[in-house]
Amino acid sequence: MGQAEWVTDPISTRDVDGPIYFSDEDWRTIEAAAARIIPTDNHPGATEAHVVRFIDRMLAGTQFVFAAADGEGFLRMQGREERAWAERIEQRRDLYRSGLIQLCDVSVGRFGAHFVALSCDQQDAVLEELSGEPKPTKFSFDAPEDDGLGGAPAGNQPVNEDFLSFFPLLVLNSRQGFYSDPVYGGNENRIGWAVIGFDGPPTLASTMDGSYTTKKYMIVDAEWPYERHPEVLRYRRP
Amino acid sequence: MKTKKNPEPVDVVIVGAGAGGATAAKVLTEAGMRVVGLERGPWLKPEHASGDELKYLNRNFIWQDPKLKPRTYRPNDREEAVVTNFSATPQVVGGGTTHWGGMVPRMTENDFKLRSIHGDVEGASLVDWPITYDELEPYYTRVEWEFGTSGLGGANRWEGRRSRGYPTKPSPLSQIGRTFATAMDKLGHSTFPMPQGMVTEPYRGRQPFSENGFWQQYPDPGTGKSSTLISFIPDAINTGLYDLRSDCYVSEILVGPDGKATGVRYQDEDGDEWVQLANAVIVCGGGIETPRLLLMSKSALFPDGLANSSGQVGRNATFHQYSFSVGLFDRDLTDPLYGWSGHYMSGCSFDFYETDESRGHILGSLIFPSNLGHPVNWSFPGRPTWGSAAKDADRELFNHTMKIGILLHDLPVESNRVDLDPTVTDAWGLPVARITHTPHWNDFAQEKWQVAKNGEVLEAAGARKVIPVNMERITGNTSHELGTTRMGDDPATSVVDRWCRTHDVPNLYVFDASFFPTATGINPALTIMANAWRCADQIIRVDSRGWAQG
């Protein structure tokens, strides 16, 4: 059955509250790690957005890979595409499994307690060690010139997750859980979007029926300066 | 094996239903020919589309899944090719016109004669096109009106003679478009509305885009964005003569003992194999899949692959790498840009398009401003990735960033090519395309100069920080795949003739961007469609005489 014929299962990432894939303990650990990746301050963070639920549903299986276009349910994947995604999810499970062990080992080794029991600074130190790099410092307009290589993805196409190791995958998945459409289990009440000032669609369906528009952020009545130029008038529409 | 009967022979079988294949299907069926279209991807409809960033950008709903359809890349012959998702391009009905931004400027007159202008360029295989702007102009106009476009005729002063304006007015201006136009003006440069594959007014039963902001990389659930999926394909189907079969993967072009193409062999979605016979075969699989199919179609008569007596199939590949400068604006000093509003881009400039050798390189590209993406994928080089630093950067800069990009007008180089990977196969067990590519020095020079220039424009616009994003290598990040069956008059140095008919096989054609003899510095789809129309006309007028009844 081709992709266009996939049926929609009437399921939601919110049908149950807690974990579908993670153990309770792993859920709490990932929740705590995500809370350091997108911390709560005067604005909500990963905890309030339910980022851990997003990650849990991503790892749960192929039932939550593609939301139906209108956001009511999920596409039941079939055939080769389904098998490729099952394999991809299994690879991510392996990364999370070994990543969780590493998180635990570093926490116990350095601070003598499980990750969730550590202070925020201790948790950051553990994550910093896992990342293999110093913890990012605040962005500054006056920082030295970047050479344009490295850092974030350069281009109009996203990072391919298939080639990431555990820590960058966790960071990217946390970001996805904070900012992707709420149907995927995170971005609860669209609070991720509110934090950064993205006036996004109330529902996926509203992007289909024309009811959601960004017109008020545009300059719809502006005319190009040469609207009356003779060359332009020559080709004016009938 | 179950007994089966192959489908009936037809006049023409077209491999692929993107920009080139769908245009050919429309023109040929409207002239009364029976056409079968074979598209390896699904036939998704507008109702399958919505503004779901994760689904379309991160989870490859319409781009090829690299686990199923990998490609490999290496910089040169000495290195081992590695698996990458090179040139992710939708393999679906409608092809690249489904996810695209719909930029449809015309080629300039000089684009057709770069060899005459620049002579021998060391290390490059620069040639003139065997056709001129004037030959293509009537077809540009037809496509602009039949397909549905918007723009301001006459506003691009670098454009050649134009017989008609655009059917709908320019798209509304975004904050980013205004910021770009104002800064360019301040520097003494010109801008004009981006000609776009969209209708901005009710047009032929279509309604304008809702401005939901989900434009670049997103198929449109409505009728505002022009794609062959909602225009030329329905036109062809309405003739009753176009049988479009989706999820059908062509693995070989078949030839008879007389050296003529007889049809194609393909697998349907259930894995059953079929042969579709036809009087003519038109290949429109894109600049990577088309040479791959020709090279896979080996036979006793064509041991090096079909239509490859010149050895040029797959060579001279160009990919229009997209590079840009990012501008970061201080929210205490500048109003928000709201990059996610509107439709990705709304203005452009050709001021740097034509060669000016004082820049230290030849050729040039159109430039255009755009956003940095929706929330998940919004980013810039050096962005803090986690912790409060990351949250601060997102919060302070998400609405205060834009970029100005270029489409590299890369030089054709004979050793830059697509061939068959000797070891890696796809999920169907067939050899995948291997890309061997190192940019010409002029590509690097042009890219570096233009990215820096774009940075100056951002500074003039008031950006507090400008970050150049230069290419390290070609990744195929524009989905533009060009040049791999180049068009020319000489069978020794080109694969297809001026009518995009292969020199070696008289009833085999290539109508996708593989025919481009040189890359141009603009998006190729309008030219693909105009040229496909021109060449389909030739099939109707001349080549089809004497065909057996289909």
UniProtKB/TrEMBL annotation, chain A:
Xref: InterPro entries: Gluconate_2DH_su3 (IPR027056)
Span list, region Disordered: 133-154
Protein name: Gluconate 2-dehydrogenase subunit 3 family protein
Organism name: Subtercola vilae
Automatic annotation (TrEMBL), chain B:
Domain (Glucose-methanol-choline oxidoreductase C-terminal) ranges: 412-532
Pfam families listed in its UniProt record: GMC_oxred_C, GMC_oxred_N
InterPro entries: FAD/NAD-bd_sf, GMC_OxRdtase_N, GMC_OxRtase_C
Keywords: FAD, Flavoprotein, Oxidoreductase
Keyword Oxidoreductase (UniProt): yes
A GO MF label: oxidoreductase activity, acting on CH-OH group of donors
Domain Glucose-methanol-choline oxidoreductase N-terminal stretches: 90-320
Similarity annotation: Belongs to the GMC oxidoreductase family.
Full protein name: GMC family oxidoreductase
Classification of source organism: Bacteria, Bacillati, Actinomycetota, Actinomycetes, Micrococcales
